[in-house]
Fold each of these.
Amino acid sequence: MSDVFDRVKKIVIEHLDVEEDKVTEKASFIDDLGADSLDNVELVMAFEEEFDIEIPDDAAEHIQTVGDAVKFISEKVG
Amino acid sequence: MFSLEGKKALVTGATGGLGGEIARALHAQGASVALSGTRAEVLQKLADELGERTAVVPCNLSDAEAVDNLPKAASDALGGLDILISNAGVTRDQLLMRMKDEDWETVIKVNLEAHFRLCRASMRGMMKNRWGRIIGITSVVGVTGNPGQANYAASKAGMIGFSKALAQEIASRGVTVNCVAPGFIASPMTDALNEEQKSAILTKIPAGDLGTGKDIAAACVYLASEEAGYVTGQTLHVNGGMAMI
């Protein structure tokens, strides 16, 4: 497991108040983790803060699973 | 009822008559209050009067960056922020034909844009806590209009529409967004009117008198309270009956 994944996982667990084992790479924020559109925005902002990056709106729209987030962030932070 | 014990509030325009009364009322209900305005010494005087549970956070609301940072300053000083009351406002009255760009821009910036910036910077903490109260002090003229106040009326009507949109965005997080719309309230702003203007106004107020800062402060206490948790996107008109909307 990558460091990025662990940090993303921690934010997701904290923010969505979900069980740790539910936060897999394939888990969809909305379909599997019970997020609504506002949660998604809050998560994106939390990722931006945690990793000190900017996630443009059009990129954020494509971040639907935990894996999507990890992939995007990993590419950004190199 | 209407206890604000343990709540932390930021009040802008606390140097003015209305803002001072709002701060006093919230404080009397048990809230900790961060007082903002441009004149630090006036804020400090009010803080001294109120005693404990106060903080002074001066800010020039026409300075965008300073406005963005204000909620954090208040939150740092009080240990959180549950209630935001955007009360600060300016007028630059002029018939539209004679209105300068600057008259328009200043009023929109201080009355409307500052509210947007304060809300944006306050709402995350409130959403996380699943509790928050945002109250914009608008004006009856934002709904009825008033000649010579196109800029002011636009800024105050803008605040009402803004609040309705934001209320829908964050209602699910336990954060309510409302407005209080004073009618004619005795304040330095209405003191600037001449006697003729004043008596003309009074004929239009069924209650027969100007309102007071306390009337507005009481409305703010209600909307900030636990009991008003199911009230959002509303404008509470406090105007002695001069406009029934």
Note: Strands of chain B lie at 8-11, 32-35, 54-56, 83-86, 132-137, 175-182, 235-238.
Amino acid sequence: MLEYTLIPLLPLIAFVINIIFGRNYIKDKAHWVSVPAVIGSFVLAVAAFMDVQSGKVININLYRWIVSGDFNVPIGFLIDPLTAVMLIVVTSISSLIFIYSIGYMHGDKGYYRFFAYLSLFVFSMLTLVMSNNFLLLYFGWEAVGLCSYFLIGFWFDKKSAANAGKKAFIVNRFGDFGFGLGVILVFLTFGSLEYTKVFSDAGSVIGKTISIFGYEVNTITLICLLLFCGAVGKSAQLPLHVWLPDAMEGPTPVSALIHAATMVTAGVFMVARCNPLFSLSHTAMTTVAVVGGVTSIFAASIGLVQNDIKRIIAYSTVSQLGYMFLALGVGAYSAGIFHLYTHAYFKALLFLGSGSVIHALHDEMNIQKMGGLKKYMPVTYWTFIAASLSIAGIPGLAGFFSKDEILWRAYAGGDAGRWLWLLATIAAFMTAFYSFRLIFLTFHGKFRGTHEQEHHLHESPSVMTIPLIFLAIGAVASGWVGIPPLLMEHGDRIGEFLAPVLGPPKGEGSHAEEWMVMGLSVFVGLAGIFTAYIMYLKKTELPYKIGEKFQAVYKLLYNKYWIDELYDKTIVRPVLSVSEKIILGFFDAKIIEGVVNGVPNLIGAFSQRLRKIQTGMLSHYAVAMALGVLVIIGAVIFLK
Amino acid sequence: MLPELFFAYFAVTITGLSILVITRKNPVHSVLWMLVLFIHIAALYVFLNAEFLAAVQIIVYAGAILVLFLFVIMLLNLRKEEIEQKFQKQWPLGMLAGTLFILFFVIILNKFAVFPAPGEYSIQAIQGEGNIMVIGKVLYTEYLLPFEIASLVLLVAIIGAVVLAKKKISE
Amino acid sequence: MVPLSWYIMLSAVVFSIGVIGFLTRRNLIIVFISVELMLNAANISLVAFSHYLQSIKGQIMVFFIITVAAAEAAIGLAILIAFYRNNPTIKVDEINLLKG
């Protein structure tokens, strides 16, 4: 059992080696440290998966981390079906992305640093998913946030990258603050932070309330909403989604690893992990579902009109994460995790494919300046097609199974579920549309960039294309473990595998309705592709006409609903001006500096007088010593 | 009566010699008075049945340490130092400290009340076996380790003295 | 029989004279000699206690004190010579190298 602790430790060791020896010794051989480490983790993760599949649940405490009165936190690992799935997702995707990075980051001056941070990130993420208590989860959660800061701002000499890193970190703080409060409240309520204890006691606190500013609030609901705050921040849901598109300033492998496949799924994982708590609170569940549903259509609509290749995919990520939360919110936890798992493959593939394109075009990211890349980059093109078909929900591919599962669970989830289902279906249409808009603008038609760029167009090296092919296989085939029972008896193996942790999915419905939902989802997917085909390949003037006609809507979407500007006006500027005027101008300058300078000045003045005693004369010290001895003897004699 | 008279002579002489030692202008005189003082202290040790220590006192203190002092004084060649002021400016403070020490000792002495029971080495026992025999037995059994450490201390002192006092060749 | 307290008193007087010499003299060599004087004062009282309490341990202690005194004199005088080589003075109140 103990060898599974190596799963997070191997990347940590790689990090330590790279960060210490990277600068002077390892330099551009950093991948020889990190890649074997993460592949080792992958192999162990597969072994752990096999173990769990044979029915074992591993829960070991390695070390007593904090012991303080009743507060007792171990460092320990829990490997159950949910963790096993996450381990496979995280380690397999990271392995492929690490290999891809060898080609993509080749020649970068921070090469060793990049692999060091990536390794640290993988360590944090694995700690997060493997922990068996809330505090270690919180540790992984924050460590993941820290790594994302390092990696988004990896090219810190570029101002926009440094700013994006800060933005991601600060926006995440809002969510993490709630999450931290949630963890504290869990301890206050249950007296323990260990999953097993908390979840088994969850039933006993139903109906209990806690008083906040005079309002009686249901404890479980409050815990769930606070925890969900963290998930909203980390998984970039409304209203804290603003950091994710900006995070695309980082190197593309980072976008793929952190902002598509793994880190942003931490929120989904956490809610699924806490399903015994969430299931007890109807309010919290509804909140999760509504936030997820609204985010999915909101982000998809922004994605329709963006021109930056990575931002389109980023908004697509936000939208797909919305799907996952929708699934969690309607109680279909395993459907959410299933979508997380398939999404990781095709979204990592999309990002790495776009990275390949950007690499070929020497850092050009505007899809309006691309086009016709199909004949230059066949591998990238075909793998991109596979990912896009998958995300559009074309039958047989991974995205179809998981998305259909979510749509069906939403539909079966009652009246509110019907509305969410409607939103999600419209979002599915948009997803198909913008995915293929991206493909048609990038790979089809004529090349619209400069002549210089066209001259240098080339397929990426095989160290980059081979991970793409592997991911494409994942994007096509990873869904085959979750075929709905409607199509195949016992086809939903992942659902059955996860059932011991996440419970059986809820919701009832007839076969006819299920066929209808499935048919409609396929139809909207095809319709989206077809619309994109008409608009961007057949009648290329059409997008401009539509843009002209609905200028207000176009501007609204193009400017992302002006949310960044709204935050800038209502939060960032007031905070900045308060900081500058009150904190910096008064508090810092007068009070802090007054104290900070006053104390040494006082001590300095005192010392000026005291140093006169320091004559350096041996005999003066001897006299002082003799008198001191006399005082002591006198004290012994006279005070006794 | 005889022992008291004997002690009185030694006490007065030792005190007088001590004062002479610390008041002489010329350090050579001080050292020579010190020699006389050490011989008197050695005699006092014999009076207290410590013949071995009396011998050591003469050999080590008078024979070795004082000779070392004399050597150093001659090495330094202190002619012009002699004519200058003997005492430091702070001498009243030093006197005060010394007087207070005597005062405190008197007070402490008056507070002595309880003595531990006499040990096994009575005068007869020591005389029966011989003073050197007794010290040797205790020193090489009970105090073997401190004895060895003392030899180490002396070794360090020899090496240290050589290292400190030798001329730096490079300068 | 001479009482123990006489010896102790003698020891105290010699010790105090040593202290006075140590604190008042300017000549560094005489300061050293005063230290030896104080050690001898301690030795007198130890031997006296040894005799009156019929314990040999006092004499053993004196033996060690003489050893340490020899070492101390050797090292101290070596330091003095090394010092005199750099600053040709042995006047205590002109030595203020301890001042930072």
Note: The mean pLDDT of chain A is 84.
Amino acid sequence: MKPIAVKVDDLTVAYNYKPVLWDIDLEIPEGVLMAIVGPNGAGKSTLIKSILGILKPIAGSVSIYGKSYEDQRSLVAYVPQKGSVDWDFPTTALDVVMMGTYGSLGWIKRPKQKEKKAALEALEKVGMLSFKNRQISQLSGGQQQRIFLARALVQNASIYFMDEPFQGVDATTEIAIINILKELRKANKTVIVVHHDLQTVPEYFDWVTFLNVKKIATGPVKDIFNDDNLTKTYGINYQVSIQE
Amino acid sequence: MVSIIKSVYKNKTIETIDFLEYIQLVFTDYTLRTITLGTALLGSICGMLGSFAVLRKQSLLGDAISHAALPGIAIAFLISGAKSSDTLLIGALASGLIGTVWIKGITSKTHLKSDTALGLVLSLFFGFGMLLLTFIQKQPNANQAGLDKYLFGQAATLVERDVWLMAIVTGVSLCVLLLFWKEFKILLFDEDYAKTLGFNTKRIDMLITSFIVVAIVLGLQTVGVVLMSAMLLAPAAAARQWTNSLGKMVVIASFFGAASGIIGTGISATQNQLSTGPVIVIIASIFVLFSFIFAPSRGLLFRQLRFIKNRRDLELHKTLAFMYHIANTHEDITHPHTIKILNNFQGFTRKTLQKLVDKNYVALDGQMWSLTKEGFDTASNLYNQLNKTNE
């Protein structure tokens, strides 16, 4: 039995009075490539953000390999949604990737040659080495997404959380990204991806969580990726359940 | 606006002698030197910190803070009864900080967006400040005159101590900037990500915001409540046009700020009737205007020029590709064809043909054209590249 990489207990998150996530229990085993699927507003991004401490839950707890997230920060990397930042910011691709080293550096210390080398390696892995000095606004959407991925790779973490990494990228980039994710899994890393394209779930992922405010189901794709769960998640009744 | 700019320019040319005299005076005259140094320092610190405000999309925060400082000045005067600038600035600092905390509180605790919060705090504090000022003016106190200089600023009142204070604040904020450079950068670019790396983003934000508040309060005496935010934003907005690196942007912004301070003081010193603060702000705006138009990569002018050039190149390439297709049907690529065939091709003109001849891609012979070897190679390269990007 593999150890549990991420464990979520009774997590409830609300903006105002309306719960966005309701009493989520989740156990994600080490080394899986997991998709989080669910309709718009199901709380997929919110789930990731609450696990990462960006949002404060009303109730519940999160543990990473049995310890609190604050103690295990260095094991976790995050790829935010591409649209969450201003790509006209005056900086280069390499510089953004270097930000992945800031966490291990801590306060005040500057990135040195070692960090730069790591960043260049990550750029090469995502096939963006020749763009290292490019101003980030001059990159295409797919290239920007790869830069974000490289930034997370630099963190050299054990668990990767990615918020819609396939959003708005072309087929070539999608394949490039999924290959990197599969490599991560091979290296026994755990990868959790907010995903929208249901068609590709069986092909890309080996683990899946159905989410719609409540957790509908979680488990291996081959066991639980079926019509029953899809209807439960996306079906017309999904709004009723929380407003009793 | 235009007329003011014109008059500034007029003054610059007509009063050349005065201006030269002024430059000599800066080195010999104590008062003028103090004021020039003061406005230069103020401009440079504002440009430096303003870059962060602009990139955080909190441009209007400066405006709200400076307006929020007004009631502090009035209350400090009412309590102390004196007009010493130190006491008044402490009052300004206190109420500026209170205003900032309110803004941050309103945006995080309610559902109001930050522009609403800024507008509310700005008008509330400014209104209250104006109320207090009129109240003070009605009081039988000989001291009260001159408080309204904080509305539009009066650089002439700068003394050596003020300049020292500015120098110290500039030095300290420069050190803090260098020390926490990486933290500031990541907060500006991706706050959520910075949180996941374990940085306390609230603390970084507080640090940078308090320096902005201090810079604003320092500038109140010189530029005044109403125009202070322009000092913060204009140099930064201008600098953004010239570079794609955060470090260079901060340096250029602080240079623009200092230059606006020096030039503005110069113009106002040679022209008795012009008050310094507004002139400085207008000079800074001229920097902005100039940068918007003439900056090499982001400026409007060069962007338009590049656009036109790209279109022309593309037209040439299309014609060349069309010729390539015709030439390709013959074994001898330099086989001549009549110009008439080209008329079927949309976008073809005599001018484009002449350009291709100039580039030595095409040879003309009467009513016949033929591709040269060079033209053929270039065209086939174009064609290959197109194929590659299509793949």
Note: The interface with chain A takes residues 55, 57, 179-183, 185-186, 188-190, 192-199, 240, 243-246, 248-249 of chain B (CB under 8 Å).
